[in-house]
Amino acid sequence: QTHKTDSDGLAELCIKSLIEKGLQKQDLVNHAGLSSATVAKMGRGEPVSNKVLVKICDYLECNVNDIMSYE
């Protein structure tokens, strides 16, 4: 299953969470197990899988509502 995000949704909230923790988008690739293509996809507001959301949340130690907005 995938979740549709808008350009102000997942990417913005995720970046905010990264900044608050002193991290960068590349850390999602290096430490959370995401591909650079997936991180780019998020930046364009394209849908990502539940698996990606879980990886992000595990790495950032947060829940899905912290990094995602629903349309």
Q: Topology, pairings included?
A:
Blueprint (H helix, E strand, L loop, with lengths): L1 E2 L6 H11 L4 H6 L5 H8 L4 E2 H11 L3 H4 L4
Antiparallel strand pairs: 1-2
Provide a brief overview of the structure:
The chain is mainly α. The chain has helices at residues 10-20, 25-30, 36-43, 50-60, 64-67; strands at 2-3, 48-49.
- Proportion of strand residues: 5-15%
Helix- and strand-based class?
mainly alpha
Poorly predicted regions are: 1-8
How far the N terminus sits from the C terminus, by CA atoms, comes to 16 Å
Q: How are the strands of the largest sheet arranged?
A: 1-2
Order of helices and strands: EHHHEHH
Q: What number is the mean pLDDT?
A: 80
Query: DSSP helix count?
Result: 5
Explain what you see.
The protein is mainly alpha-helical and 71 residues long. It is built from 5 helices and 2 strands; from the N terminus they run E-H-H-H-E-H-H. Strands 1-2 form a two-stranded antiparallel sheet. 20% of the residues are buried. Mean pLDDT is 80; it is low at 1-8.
Task: Please give a handful of descriptors for the protein shown.
two-stranded antiparallel sheet, single chain
